[in-house]
Amino acid sequence: MTNCENAEGFVCISCVDEVRLSFASHLSEALRRKGINNVVIDVDSDDLCKESQEKVEKSRVSVMVLPGNCDYSEVWLDKFAKVLRKNKEQVVVPVLYGDNQLRGEWLSALDLRGVSPIHKSRKECSDSTLVEEIVRDVYEKLFSMERIGIYPKLLEIEKMVNKQPFGIRCVGIWGMPGIGKTTLAKAVFHQMFGAFDASCFIEDSDKSVHEKGLYCLLEEQLLKDKRTVMELSSLRDRLNNKRVLVVLDDVHNALVAESFLEDFDWLGPESLIIITSRDKQVFHLCRINQIYEVQGLNEREALQLFLMCASLKDMGEEKNLHELFVKVINYANGNPLAISVYGRELKGKKKLSEMETAFLKLKRRPPFKIVDAFKSSYDTLSDDEKNIFLDIACFFQGENVNYVIQLLEGCGFFPHVGIDVLVEKCLVTISENRVRLHNLTQDIGREIINGETVQIERRTRLWEPWSIKYLLEYNEQKGIGEPKATFKRAQGSEEIEGMFLDTSNLRFHVQPSAFKNMLNLRLLKIYCSNPEVHPVINFPKGFFLSLPNELRLLHWENYPLRSLPQSFDPRHLVEINMPYSQLEKLWGGTKNLEMLKTIRLCHSQNLVNIDDLVKAQNLEVIDIQGCTRLQSFPAAGQLLHLGVVNLSGCIHIKNVLEIPPNIETLNLEGTGILALPLSTVKPNHRELVNFLTEIPDLSEASKLERLTSLLESRSSSQDLGKLICLELKDCSCLQSLPNMANLDLLNVLDLSGCSMLNSIQGFPRFLKELYLAGTAIREVPQLPQSLELFKAHGSCLRSLPNMASLEFLKVLDVSGCSELETIHGFPRNLKELDFAGTTLREVPQLPLSLELLNAHSSDKFPMHYTFSNFFDLSPQVVNDFLVKALTNVKHIPREYTQDINKAPTFSFSAPSHTNQNATLGLQLGSSVMTRLNPSWRNTLVGFGMLVEVAFSEDYCDATGFGISCVCRWSNKEGRSYRKERNYHCWPPGKVVPKVRKDHTFVFCDVNMRPSTGERSDPDIWADLVVFEFFPINQQTKSLNDRFTVTRCGVRVINFTSGNTSLKNISPVLSLDPMEVSGYGVVEEALRVSYDDLQEVDKVLFLYIACLFNDEDVDLVASLIAGIDLDVISGLKVLADVSLISVSSNGEIVMPWLLLKMGKETLRRHFMLLSDCESSMSENLSDVSKKRRKSNAKKVVCVQATNLEDEWSWRKYGQKEILGSRFPRIYFRCTHKYTQGCLATKQVERSSTDPDMFIITYVSEHNCNASEPPYGQTDHDWDATMGTSTNDPAGCKNGSGSISQFIGEVPDHTARR
């Protein structure tokens, strides 16, 4: 069975009768050879049978061979329009065949309909070639959509199958409707069926089994036998012990799969049974443990499918169109069915407004195909499960699952079981403890409600503001006489069970009897989703009559009245949530609050009385924060279930008489409390009995049971042993605390802002979070081993105990503790440390686990370390830490770098010290070059950039100060590229104190990667890149007048841990002009070194020099084009003759004098290079391939009095040098022929300073200098070189002192 053997796999070829037996027939046969067997030829003159006509209508692809005859034009245009209009999911492939007279008209008509591509016959294209093009297009349109995102899932299924033990293997494929279960099962089937003796794919298994019976169906599919067999024995005889592959697709009834697995245990070993279902319970009943959950398409795959279904080639250039497509894809959330349906619905629409309107309609009224897919799962639910699903779809998307369960439990729906069923049927998911629905699922749920009736008041759930306003609004029709109020719309609203009204941008008055007829209203929520908007929802007469007594949830923000209706019976209420209300009290008298579990009256500033709450025996949460007029909190010692009490901001509450015995979270932040009662009050029996008699509707047996449990709890709970969180923040009157060591469950203790608190006796031993910010505490007792977070910023701490043993502590903040002088040790797993504003003189060893360190100002970088102005710290501490940090950055995991966007991965700042430059290997100047690893495209993470900045004495403010980094390179054609990134040395907007002395800044950035804006990484010539650094302000303007980059360096960060330095190139001190007297002498020495280079090395030198000078890079384009340099060898040569400096870190530095010389040399010879560009390139190309072995060279400048050295030399030649006043004299070692020493040297007098000589040593001596030259006569030099014209004495002996020869060199100035 193939993918094409279903209705959606049919291909229809529509054509005129003239081409039916020729072109159309050949096309049909070609499609069959490709594996597309179901092809129907629809000829306009034929009357197709009913079956063929159905296939034409349901065909997935329609190939329309358009005629060129004028007689057919109108008919076929109408037919073409009919096809496009009738089946929007059908893909149309238009073909203009033959000598088409109407080609222009057809192309215009097809273009208007947005159909592409159009296949056209042409002179240079044979019919067979045209057929191949059409077949390829049809095949891609038929199957490419199904293949998107399948391959990775297919591999996972194969792994799951292969891991199973020997025997019959079973795999379940589970997922929501439309997610691609069937498509994935088909892909697995076609991938594997060839390895089995028999195989079958049964689509819509429940329906197929019901119609034909399981045994008959399997015999048809497995044995290709049309006989009807109702006995299992016959099938067993023919398939016994054979390897069989069976796919049961879309199983709803678990009995079908269960019976199959039980009756077919005789299948051969390694048989494979695959079952797809949207109900996980099917797999549990069939005891299938290997279940694969199908995930949705990722963003790239979803976009690809959407564009294909919408017949669009790309996203388009229009920004709004791009945003709309992304919105559609995000809404579909990876569901292939939704993406394909939305794409086809938007196909052909060219205007943005048309697309937006169509999408809004799709959201409001989902297409039938999507509704049908989800509705089938909904129909299998029980009544309670349907109610749970509809409540979640309409009201509880994204809510906390415990909150939802509590409310639905109060409605009697058994949500613990019901939500599990919804999860197993893929209608609901639980993620991060929240209930979530796919957007489509929510739409279907709401569509079910809207489909109940067209009458709004007859619907069971309402959430649309306009419809709720329609029901509740109070209208006055003014006529002659008194105003006449009308309100008839809420009549007949007995069916309403839930109402959630978002009052954003609404202003209306509520009818006093608005809720009178809503007898079944369970859930009422009136809220404002926009905190910046203040809605106006009032009662015109200052009251309203009643609320439904069936309410479980009463959530009403900004409730405008002083109390709830007196007639309201809250016996079923589970939660009261009325923040920012005008309530003074809830109601008058005593009410039955047996079901009430949560009450929140936050910021109800007129509230003065809540004493009735103590009657709610099942109360779990009391949140009355911000109720500023509330004077007291009732004695709640008898509320055994109360776990959370929030009194924060109740400034007039000065004491808490009783604390519930099972309290877990107590928030007293900002109250006027003076002392904390850590033991409960034990009431006498008479008080308990009197209390129980006040509770109505409670039987005597229940009273006795409640009294017994209360007494037991009171006798056993004499402290706050179950307290988990204690919030005392900003309790400015609190002066002391008792010993809390016995509070074993306390995890969070917040005492920040308790400015009068100066001592603590002890901490709970399992405490995890401790906040002491702003307290007067000077010393703390031993911290518990369990502590994970300690924040004491701005406190009066003077010392801290040794924290080295606190292995769980991750965050330590003692910033602003101005009296803190010493810290004895840091935990080894510490991640965040802040000691800015302290007076620390010495810092212990910093742990390598540290990710954030601040000793100056706060920031939000992922890894940021600030030591600004921390001059008391040892430079070695700072250096060691930076070296280790840079080492750690090299091991950044690949997946982490994908989450970095704008901020650098790592940043560091600290004062500069003398020995720091030696440690970090910084180079003089503001620019540096480095060479990337040849495989940098696969290994490069980013760069670490080190910049030393000198701050001028007269600068005013360093706020917003930053460094601009420019990375430059050239491609193989000589074209120049650059990338610029700006880094803030301190967070923008922060006030930075005046920075004293020089500081070093380090930025590690994974986004500083050479790129040209194209998808592929650029070709970088010689893999050389230059980095330049400039000081800038917050507006990226240059600050070179007040700040100077004095030194810099670059580190290449790779995924691999290997060193990226240029190996075998030892650091060479560059000739720094600032340290050598006489620029002219140095320049001549450098020029000598340059002149003696091979041509290919000269090109490399000029390229490096001009890459540093951004404006001159194009000048060497003609040189580097087509040249394959041995860069490593060339760099060695340049470093040996001191034309560049290469550090141990692989950085290449060229002093400004060399840059100037290279620039002038290039410009001087530029015209010559242009004239002989091609020949020079050829010569250089040959040289680069045949580079002669280079000899080590050393150039020195010496005074005339220091010409002699320890070696014995013999002059063997002399040469006039262009541009120089003096000749160059050549010497060789006197032991060349006796010991084979190859050392030579060249001596030249400086033209600018005759007292200075430039000596170039070539190769090193390998001779024994103490041994006299053997077998060499005094006339060897004369015999080999002839008498020197510059030797007046005839130089009978070539040996002699250097000064002897140099001194005889005449002055050539006159001659020139």
From TrEMBL:
Q: Which keywords does the record carry?
A: ATP-binding, DNA-binding, Leucine-rich repeat, NAD, Nucleotide-binding, Nucleus, Plant defense, Repeat, Transcription, Transcription regulation
Q: Where is this protein localized, as stated in its record?
A: Nucleus
Query: Gene for this protein?
Result: LOC104760397
Domain WRKY spans what residues?
Answer: 1198-1266
Q: What is its main location?
A: nucleus
Q: Which organism is it from?
A: Camelina sativa
Q: What is this protein called?
A: Disease resistance protein RRS1-like
Q: Which Gene3D superfamilies match?
A: Helical domain of apoptotic protease-activating factors, P-loop containing nucleotide triphosphate hydrolases, Ribonuclease Inhibitor, Toll/interleukin-1 receptor homology (TIR) domain, WRKY domain
Q: Where is the TIR domain?
A: 5-142
Q: Which InterPro entries match?
A: AAA+_ATPase (IPR003593), Apaf_helical (IPR042197), Disease_R_plants (IPR044974), Leu-rich_rpt_3 (IPR011713), LRR_dom_sf (IPR032675), NB-ARC (IPR002182), P-loop_NTPase (IPR027417), TIR_dom (IPR000157)
